[in-house]
Fold each of these.
Amino acid sequence: MRQLLTGLNLPNIKFMLISSIIITFLLTFAILVFLLKTNLKNMVLDTPNQRSLHHEVVPRSGGVAIMAGVLLTWAFYEQTWFWSILVLILVVISLLDDIKGLSIKWRFLIQMIVSALFIYYGLSALAWWLSVLIVFGIVWMVNLYNFMDGSDGLAGGMAVIGFSTYALAAYMADDHQIVLMSASLASAALAFLIFNFHPAKIFMGDGGSIPLGFLAASIGVYGCQHDLWAIWFPVLVFSPFIIDATVTLLKRGYFREKVWQAHRSHYYQRLVQMGYGHTKTALYEYSLMISVALSALVLNRSGLMQVAIGLFIWIVIYAILLFLIDQRWKQFQHMTAVIR
């Protein structure tokens, strides 16, 4: 599957990169406008429930526009056909889930099959236990991205910053295929963000969050095997989502809560509920995402000791941030109970 765009000099690659970014942005933007201006916006609607942070019915078909813009751009590059097929499967299944609803077992089964296909056909031979571990890792990333798509501008911003970081790292490693793929993903997410930043006119929905989570994980694993970055790099780049979702799930499991049920206990959800609102929460998250991304790019070209120190510093920072939010949440709950 690894067919780099060889035989092209640097000016040609730069031209293709700029063209890919512009074309994907314009395609995604045009599709979003079309969706919002026609009755297709009612194809999938997000009705507020106990997990929601919004109070009005909002279309949730924005992810279809993101992936349509990306896949149409990828159609110009022969090297991306395998990725496109896997992404298309996830988009179709996720869209069906948005419209009709699919049981969780079928969703997980399809996600695992797609992840296994990626490992079998997209990577070099791996030990069976490592393949199984990667499958579960990809499926977890797929679903945690979906969990974190609950506040205006959050998932779209993570896609812009995360995939831009992938593109920069791949550019430094001279892997033109991953540069073009990642840059087009970031560009499509940026076009979506115009309509998704608070107050959001359209949501991403499963049709966007599921394939984006898959691509964040699969490109990350692919880059590891082809020496674009170390195994910690994609984890650090997407750590704002990984840490929030994983810690929240572990806490809910520890307190014997039903982890599969909808809830509003993610750290970003608590920030919104405590009065920071969608805009401030998104901007705080963007600051964290950018800081993590820049440090990941620096550490990716550093020695082992510098990497160990850098990762330890981020572990401490996350521990402090989570502790502070937890303490603020307890105070907020106490004040709310007193007022009531």
Amino acid sequence: MAFDPLTAALDIGGKLIDRLWPDPAQRDAAKLAMLKLQQEGEFKQLDQDFQLALEQAKINGIEAANPSIFVSGGRPAAMWVCVLGLFYTFFAQPLLAWVSTMAKFPAPPVLDTGVLVQLLLGMLGLAGWRSMDKANNVASK
């Protein structure tokens, strides 16, 4: 069974075609027509996804070129939050916990880094794609 509704509908459509057209030539022609419709729909969806990504890239470029730090500084601020959170989690907190046991005061809290790591991996993933583009000599726009 298919997971997306379009493929599931086409599977059901193929079974209906098998029952409605006993003649193999008519059945094959109907299935071919259905496959052409499916392919056109997939190409339209791919084109829409590509256009959406292209528009988002244009907006990101305009946003990054803005002289206001409140507009262009959002991505760097998110990266610095990740850097500071990871610094605290992997360096400062263990060190402070060690010192707190020796000085007999409460240990500092441990951060839940799930969301932090998701944000970081998203940013690094995008940076990874750009690094791959640079390695393949693809110019940025």
Amino acid sequence: MMRITVVESSAEKVRLRVEGRVTGPWVDELRRTCEVQALEDRIQLTLDLADLSFADAEGIELLRELRADGVVLSRPASWVAQQLTSL
């Protein structure tokens, strides 16, 4: 189970809190949500990952892709940060 909450939203930036597990169908849900929230290139999207409890390999890969696309990954747990930097 995963929950995504809009914490902050303006014309310049959007901050989403991601809670729970990013696995299976939730990976695609997070991808779609990020695409919808950052439809315009000028919007800075930030994901607050402090309450992320688990991400499978597909979820970690999505987070890597999002980061490469300019999404800010805020407050990741140490295990998430380690997975994001591992190859």
